[in-house]
């Protein structure tokens, strides 16, 4: 099956367009106030309105208060919610929306247990554990930590870029890849050439 691509941490309409034009399946909007890529609701609405049909807009939250998540979901047309903190399965399903759950990868993580725990998640986002950082670190983890017999779709993240994503896909065989830092010229500012090169590398990986 074709590996899907999500370009995360979009803060500008032109970057959303560049991602869609290059063939991204999804773009991500970060609603975590601690992230340099955090968008306001107004920014989010402008970006969402610029995205063509059939490109999924994913809203990313990190241990956000319920009222904040609800306020965003009420106004913003999001196709999927990404919980990137320590949210429990009960917290993830509070909103009745399809969601993916991030798992911070390091030695000892039991992904079989995690996929049982988040049984109703659409997929697991595997991102690098970096102390003091929730995500978007630009750092890769040891892909050998991902067992080949998971039942849930894996969305591989963490330090991916055009030069390593092909190898990552061949090693892990994820359903999708998720990138933020690796397609940027500065935090929150995407580089259209890097986006295009990344998506090309994904398509060429076999
Ligand atoms: O992008 C962010 O700023 C961010 C902030 C808080 C949690 C997650 C965040 N991004 C996600 O992190 C991974 C890896 O990103 P990177 O390619 O290593 O920069 C990815 O899932 C982003 O969606």
UniProtKB/TrEMBL annotation:
Residues 5-200 form the N-(5'phosphoribosyl) anthranilate isomerase (PRAI) domain. Pathway: Amino-acid biosynthesis; L-tryptophan biosynthesis; L-tryptophan from chorismate: step 3/5. GO terms for molecular function: phosphoribosylanthranilate isomerase activity. It catalyses: N-(5-phospho-beta-D-ribosyl)anthranilate = 1-(2-carboxyphenylamino)-1-deoxy-D-ribulose 5-phosphate. GO terms for biological process: L-tryptophan biosynthetic process. It is an enzyme of class 5 (isomerase). Keywords: Amino-acid biosynthesis, Aromatic amino acid biosynthesis, Isomerase, Tryptophan biosynthesis. NCBIfam families: PRK01222.1-4 (NF002298), PRK01222.1-6 (NF002299). HAMAP family: PRAI. PANTHER family: N-(5'-PHOSPHORIBOSYL)ANTHRANILATE ISOMERASE (PTHR42894). This is N-(5'-phosphoribosyl)anthranilate isomerase.
């Amino acid at each position: 099956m074709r590996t899907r691509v999500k370009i995360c941490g979009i803060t500008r309409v032109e970057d959303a367009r560049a991602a869609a034009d290059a063939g991204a399946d999804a773009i991500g909007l970060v609603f975590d106030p601690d992230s340099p890529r955090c968008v306001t609701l107004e920014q989010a609405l402008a970006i969402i309105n610029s995205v063509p049909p059939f490109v999924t807009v994913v809203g990313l939250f990190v241990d956000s208060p319920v009222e904040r998540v609800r306020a965003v979901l009420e106004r913003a047309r999001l196709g999927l919610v990404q919980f990137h903190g320590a949210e429990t399965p009960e917290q993830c399903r509070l909103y009745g929306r399809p969601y993916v759950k991030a798992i911070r990868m390091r030695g000892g993580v039991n992904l079989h247990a995690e996929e049982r725990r988040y049984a109703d998640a659409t997929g697991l986002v595997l991102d690098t554990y970096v102390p003091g950082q929730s995500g978007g670190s630009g750092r890769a983890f040891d892909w050998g930590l991902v067992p080949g017999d998971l039942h849930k779709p894996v969305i591989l993240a963490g330090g991916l870029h055009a030069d390593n994503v092909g190898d990552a896909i061949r090693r892990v065989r994820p359903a999708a890849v998720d990138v933020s830092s690796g397609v940027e010229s500065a935090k929150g500012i995407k580089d259209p050439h890097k986006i295009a090169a990344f998506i090309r590398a994904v398509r060429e990986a076999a």
